[in-house]
Amino acid sequence: MSIKTNNIIKAVNPSFEGIQPDMEIDNVSIDSRSLQNNIGTLFFALPGKNRDGHNYIPELIENGVLNFVVTHIPNGCKNRANFFIVNDTLKALQDFAAYYRGLFNFPVVGITGSNGKTIVKEWLNYALSPDYNIIRSPKSYNSQVGVPLSVIAINEKHNLGLFEAGISTTGEMEKLAQIIKPNIGILTHLGPAHDEGFTDMLEKIKEKLKLFKDTDVVILQKNAIAELELEGTTTFTWSYNGDADVNITKTIHTDTTELTVDYNGDSFKVVIPFFDDASAENAISCLMLMLHLGYSSDFITERLAGVYPIEMRLQVKNGINGCTIIDDSYSSDYQSLKIALDFLEQHKTHKKKTIILSDVFQSGFTVEELYEHVTQLLTANNISRVIGIGETISTQLKDFPNFISYKTTQEFLTQYNANSYSNETILVKGARSFRFEEIVVLLEEKTHETVLEINLNSIAHNLKFYRSRIKPETKIMVMVKAFGYGSGSYEIAKLLSHQKVDYLGVAFADEGIALRNAGISTPIIVMNPEASAFSAMTAYKLEPEIYSVRELRAFIEIAKQKNLSDYPIHIKLDTGMHRLGFENYQLDELIELLKHNNFVSVKSIFSHLSSSDVPQYRDFTLGQIDKFTQWSQKIIDTLSINPIRHILNTSGIYHFPEAQFDMVRLGIGLYGVGNDAQERKSLENVGTLKTVILQIKDIQPGESVGYSRKFMASEKVRTATLPIGYADGIPRSWGNEKGYVMINGKKAVITGTISMDMMMVNITGIDCKEGDKAVIFGTAPTVVEMAEALGTIPYEILTSISQRVKRVFYQE
Ligand SMILES: *Cc1c(COP(=O)(O)O)cnc(C)c1O
């Protein structure tokens, strides 16, 4: 894009304060972390309880950004940049996008529905891109923020737009419609997704159809209600019942679906490499648009034969030789490259960043322009090493420093040498036809197929939930001890530090040191510091919990030796947990030691509740809170200090928000597990433990399965063997028909005893094959359900998952 800032004034009608109202803008950003922010950036400071964009403006000005859309000018920023001041920055972003969209005049397809939007968009892109310069929503950018960002990426060279619109409640579609301004509408499958936001199906349909208010034609499956709503708009319908403009007969084969299409007295066949109903519907949406655009049946048949599964997520994986791999081996266009580079910056675990990149497609630029832009992007993102694969990229980027090129993926694979990759974060990004998944396989750490998938969006959601339960000024500390409750500490700490949590809590010094080495600068408290680690702790700026006079003396001794002054410490009071901490009778001695002591400084005073989740002990908890109030007050008054006070853990935040003092300590809730059933409803599942079926067996009546013949078949059963056992942290007591796993959405009960590295499950009646996925826990069964059945607590199950299980992090 290229637009003058005075057009912003036209588009969003702000009041202006700044240095120069007429500057050139060539990109829009809402993400302060992006290394793509530069002098040409227009930054929209979106609000948010956790991450108000306004807070990042001083940093952005330092980095050269000069144009901001804001609700107010942050302190100290006046006269240092241009500020376009509005009441609502999200609305301004939407208005700006709507204005920008109005500058272009080419066919735009608006896609909505409950399911299939992204797949239809991606398949259409695949099928039509040989003939059009397509601009499309990247990934599944279909929200109130995602849609404007998608549209703002349009440029003069594009001649077809494919944008998806997703809504979760009434009133949202109208805004998206103004931004997308589609000429052609596609309504995909209408299912139950996002039903919570609507009173009924009719309301949902009505809202969705608002996208099509001004379209020339709407493509949809024959649907009386929708057609009534669309009265006055031309429709182009399909049906399996012979009553539509295009009539389809579907035949499902082992792993393909054959669609016979009858249209205008003509009949032809489309075969897609899928055998499920949803894929058939999505393919039909695609062929309908192709018919509308005038494609011949031969072309449609040929293009749709190549549709493929869509992976929208960028995945972070452990790589060989200490590398981290970011797998984006499914697309390579300019827009998604920008997103992937931002993602790389946020998730890198090393200074050195490498990208393996295929030819880049569909930008709407000429080849030279495109690679000039790509070069700029790679430079702005400080990419240390670029490996280009493909005819075009090899020549176009040849002058880039540290550029290595291969003409084909095959050439790369034959010359591959594992030793040339170590301790770097590698983004693997290639168009589908380059089959970069084969490169990912080589670079990935070789472990078994069992993975614990961690959903970073859910972590952010859960944090937001607990933040909404406390006052805005209350600080928040997040416990990442025990390897982030088994979920992986570094990735999570990185997310939390961006979310500006105030403290991180670890159990031992070495956990804190690992976080510092990984670049985390958020203050860290070590909850069980050992005297032997004090020296290292001070070197890494780790702050000790001080629970006894003996410990305090030892720490002061180290501080003295190292010439430290005012080193932050955290005083732990024992108000009833009886684990660690000062009791009432020890306070005088503590105060005496701290008086006139300049080596350390009391940063916080805290205590821990033993039973915040046990309703029966409510009075006991209130008693703990009361003691904490009095004891801490005594220390504060005698020493005349002003420390942070905190006592609440997850269940405390939920049940005793009145005792939040100055900070709370969130643990298990962040990881999606609340101790209270009501609380859990507000949380999202974070971890999903998955494995695959190794082998399938048919067991005859009278035969047994597993060690000690604990399972005897009384009738014919079919079993699947999974490569996960008690050494991976699955409690052995979960076997013998007590527990189950989910395979293709169905419960498969565990047959026989769980072995060290394997277990068998009963798959009689379940449609599955070797290589299919099995979910050990996640949304079903939940860790809570497992813990209840096994007489333990979710904490134990989560933290027991062995380190040999690979953690994979993803973000939608
Ligand atoms: C682990 C821990 C927490 C967090 O407890 P959750 O129940 O997981 O929220 C808080 N404070 C201290 C001192 C802890 O050790």
Number of helices: 27
Report the end-to-end length measured between terminal Cα atoms.
26 Å
Small molecules in complex: pyridoxal-5'-phosphate
Biggest sheet statistics: 15 strands, mixed
- In total, the number of strands is 41
Structural class: alpha/beta
EC number: 5.1.1.1
Active site: 481 (proton acceptor), 707 (proton acceptor)
Catalytic activity: L-alanine = D-alanine
Domain Alanine racemase C-terminal: 686-810
Can you walk me through this structure?
Residues 686-810 form the Alanine racemase C-terminal domain. By secondary structure, the chain is an alpha/beta fold. It has five domains: 3-92, Udp-n-acetylmuramoylalanyl-d-glutamate--2,6- Diaminopimelate Ligase, Chain: A, domain 1 (3-Layer(aba) Sandwich); 104-304, Mur-like, catalytic domain (UDP-N-acetylmuramoyl-L-alanine:D-glutamate ligase), CATH 3.40.1190.10; 314-446, Protein-Tyrosine Phosphatase, Chain A, CATH 3.90.190; 453-681, Alanine racemase (TIM Barrel, Alpha-Beta Barrel); 687-811, Lyase, Ornithine Decarboxylase, Chain A, domain 1, CATH 2.40.37.10. It has 27 helices and 41 strands. The strands form six sheets. It has a 15-stranded mixed sheet, with helices on both faces. Strands 9-10-8-11-12-13-14-15-16 form a nine-stranded mixed sheet. The longest helix is centred in the last third of the chain and has 22 residues, at 618-639. The radius of gyration is 29 Å and the shape is globular. The mean pLDDT is 92. The structure holds pyridoxal-5'-phosphate (PLP). Residues 479, 527, 608, 649-651, 665-669 line the site of pyridoxal-5'-phosphate.
